[in-house]
Design goal:
By secondary structure, the chain is mainly alpha-helical. A five-stranded parallel beta sheet has the order 2-3-4-1-5, sandwiched between helices. Strands 6-7 form a two-stranded antiparallel sheet. It is globular.
Amino acid sequence: MLAGRDLERAAVSALLDAARAGNGGALVVRGVAGAGKSALLADALSTAPDLQVLRTSGVESESPLAFAALQRLLWPLRARIDALPAPQAAALRAAIGEAEGEGDRFLAFLGTLSLLADAAERAPLLVIVDDAHWLDDASAAALLFAARRLQAEPVALLFAARDGDARRFDAGDLPTVVLGGVTGADADALLSAHAGTDVDPAVCGRLVADTGGNPLALVELAGVLTADQLAGRAPLPTPLPLTGGVERAFLNRCRRLDEPAQRFLLVAATDDTGRLTVVREAAERLDAADAALDAVERSGLLRVDGDAVALYHPLVRSAVYRAATSAQRRAAHRALADVLTGDPERRAWHLAAAADRPDEDVVAALDGVAERAAARGGHEAAAAAWARAAELEEASEARGRRLYLAASSAWLGAHPARGSALAQAAAADVTDPLLRARLLALQGQIEWNTRSLNDGYDLVLQAAETATGVDAALGAQLAMLAASLTAFGARSPRAVDPAALLAEPAPDAPPRVRAARALLHGFGAVARSDWAAAAESFRRAFDLTDAEPVDDHMLQPNLGIAAMLIDDDERGLRLHEQQLTAARSAAALTMVEHALTRGAHFQIATGAWSKAAGAAAEALPLSAGTGHPGLTALPTAQLALIAALRGDDDAERHLDRVTEIRDRHPIGITDRLVADLAHWARGLRAAAQPATALHHLEQIEGPAFRRLAALDLFDAAVRGARTDLARTWLAELEQFAAGTGAPSATAVVEHGRALLAGAGDGDAETHFRRALAAHAESPRLPDRARTHLAFGEHLRRARRRVDAREHLRTALALFEDLGATPWAERAAQELRASGESARRRDVTTATALTPQERQVAALVRQGLSNRDVAAQLFVSPRTVDFHLRNCYAKLGVSSRAELTALPLDL
């Protein structure tokens, strides 16, 4: 029975109605044990006779088994898996144990979304997930991935999770309702219904006060108090029977059973199959036969339906299991292991729970569990299995190896704190140089991504030093990694040059080897601010790799970093587009996210702001899906900056979110990028107040962003009478421009010199013209527009209105194309002041498309089907169809052919 809960029922009803209307969504129901979460789910089920229903639940003892809950949920749909794209189908079958072999976890996640969307094509689908706090980590990650991407799919995903438990279901940004206690008429109705008699209002008030209105506690009291006590004719017992809590009440009921029945109940609490045949056979090994089963059933603590056995409430499981002695628990686990000979995963975990000393047979069984889990993307389960195997291992080197494997899996499963702790434990046992190098590299990766860039860099340096003498290829990779970290400001207290760890390659060495060496020297030069040497090294690396596409997972991203460091925008765009294409083809979610966010840097610089916004918008849910919330800071900051460049008030919302993410989560290596983007965005928002703008802009630290924001700082510094600050930045830019010869930097230097030359100065015009000549060699349209505007303003102030108009018209046209509203308004105002009316131009209707609509349109124009587009964007085909229809409506076309024929810059 569900008493009250009108607001919560309304929230559930809205979710179901949205699904009926074709709009997917998710809702998390939270509350303490006994708050009525399962009752609310049952009520939702009763109101949805027109919906298809899939159900699963978390089970405490099953939480180490990768994808266990997902397997139960999707089992009714397994025949439809073949209809999915082949990579998704293979990964999903591997994840749920339908096929042997390896599977990418993110492809399995995408397969889950696609399968649910496919099932919903017949009728709206309701997915119910109870006890979500006990979901195995892989199933929770898959379901949250799907929940965050439900858009145009008629799917309602309803979770219930307990608050106050050791495990927490972290649903992040999903809509949530919290169940509190019931009071008043709702409490009275609940008590009366379960007692079968009226309850005195004063008694009801006392029971509510003593239980906090917990529905399960009230139901239990209604069953143990007498009619006279409930009616107020007899005093209530002191203390109440539930003084120790509902769990204590269940334990008291258990202890009233005879010994065989208690043993049967303990086996049922220890089991995670829910199959009566398994529980009965294991209980028989502990001399608990059918009579014991009858007694437990009569107590109401256990229900049997065919071959399914279920405890009355999850608290029965925890009460019975925790009250048993360690010897009793081990005996129950051993009995279940003896029965589960055909289920190696469950058998291994029961053997591990039954072991109280080193056991090589159990270690071997756990190794098998870990290897199979890791192969199908169940990294959390693999980490747990290898960690338990290490506990049961006697030899220290073997123990260290398993702890390293556990740490690596924990990191891959998005549990950095657990990974760090396991790696630290492994360090005490690992002596093999090659394994030690890998361990140090893992520790460094965790460190620079979650805590300290400098500490992470030092660990990678140690790893490179250790590896150099035993594995030249690994040593080279780690040296490259260390060098690239220095380009982001990483420093170590030990004076070690990564380039000095490796011998110079032979002149006839493969181009990739020589390119890697050139990059290594280039990164070192950047750390020394030797821009001429850096540019020379990087361009040598580019020349060596231009002949053919680079698919080296270490070399390719570092070429992109090199392009960013010397402002080679065209190359940076090309490299990241290649990386993105390859990552999409492989459905490599983390590399897609990396290519999107790093490529956005070049898109922002060159004025492809709509593409950059689309990339950041796509990267946002992808980064959230990795399990590292801190990774969402970078795309959020990019959205904030793009909004600020356009004069969009959404910038404030994004900036607030950036602050929240940085306050709550470790950001790691991208934190300086995030901070610089936020400072630049805040400086743009404060452009009307030069002092405030400068306060934000002068806090930008990264050289690449200082160059990008230089024109904004020059403008604010001149207007705010802070030419000293402008000259400091200009000197830094002059050094970079002289060293690299980058046209974009030369243009900004000449622009800055022109502003500092002052009005009426003939040198100013010379500098402006030099700036425009350099801009002609650079793809940075926003900077070109700014120079045209500043030159036009200079000429107008010099009373050369006719000459000014040419530059002001160009600036206005460029700003309108960019969607830079504040600057377009400033250019229009200047143009009017010159004596010419500013006519608003028609700008391509593509600017009306949302970021996701632009992405869909761009991929469809390449000839991809909806199904292929969905696979590349990690959404369902139905969502693609929804966005494509919106594109048709906004662009005035009715077919894919017409869309492809439009002259659009997407």
